[in-house]
# Entry
Amino acid sequence: MSQNVLVLNQDYQAIAICSVERAFVLVYLRKAELVLSREDRKVRSISRSFPFPSIIRLYRYVHIPYRKVALSRANIFKRDGNQCVYCGTKNDLTVDHVIPRSMGGKDTWENLVTACQTCNTRKGNRTPEMCGMRFLRPPFRPSYIMYLTNFTGSVLDAWRPYLMMS
# Structure
């Protein structure tokens, strides 16, 4: 049962991803309801068979303070898919300041990108506009749920409406 289950708060907002075992226990103890199950699989005991959870919703609202994704080199690489935002290569990656520090650029999600050594050197101490470079993907602050889904490897199509993905 090495699958993951999307956990929704009472208001259907995605708050976590858990194991099938944990989701089954929450449903069995009536702390959560089964929103969507996988038709092709079952959770079996010696004498019974239960639906295999894919999405569950908690019965009680859980207040969760705003969670930020930590700004770190590893998380910038994850956000950018471990490839250069200027040329798309996956070799010799570094972190680049879109607006250089010498021009007042800060260490923020919107100002840090993954760049290969070649593009970073070509850009130098200038902005991308100054040297005619364009982003393949502009930098952005990732949401916490996006950060969680990166650890699962792939997102099930059934989860997309709850994760605000089309």
Notes: Residues 67 and 144 are 6 Å apart (CA to CA). The longest helix spans residues 20-28. The chain has two domains: 4-65+143-163, 70-141.
